[in-house]
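Entry type: protein chain
Record version: 2
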Amino acid sequence: MPTPDGYMENAHGHLVPVAQIKDIDMARHELVMEKVAKARVMQEELRRLKGEIMGDVEAFITLSAEKYETSLGGQKGNVTLNSFCGRYQLKRQISEHLTFDERLQAAKTLIDECLKEWSEDSPGELRTLVNGAFDVDKEGRINTGRILGLRKVKIDDDRWLRAMDAIADSLTVTGTKAYFRLYERDGSGKMQAISLDIAAL
């Protein structure tokens, strides 16, 4: 429903006559709205830039593969393109979103059995690592990296090995997201990211 002429809606959803709004409150509102409008335009420009870069990189990879009868790109579609002068670099990275199914609980049960039996001999660091791996964040999500980190711990126990197998089997890729990053070589020869994050500028 549109706001009636001569009124503005406040933060509580109430209609307030414009004539009753203090000059400083109106000036603050106009400043915020002006900057939000400009930010929206820039956000759309960045969205278009991302789409353009992603499309052009994919087209270049296809062209290179056809020209040289080979593939370009690393594991999971990651690729790095360098300028001829070596000063600039464009990286495309594919990030996978991973989740665990109910078999993760089976793994936790097996691990708990191991820790209970090893309680006297198991290092405190291992118990801390395990408990931390299964902690959830404020949104109730499990840290995938910590869970997968358990698989790097080499323990020759059948239950532990079965637990690690259960973790591997419970892992599912539920989606992927592509990112790009641009870099410029600085005076010391180190590649520095060209930031598109307004907070980092």
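Comment: The chain has a mean pLDDT of 85.
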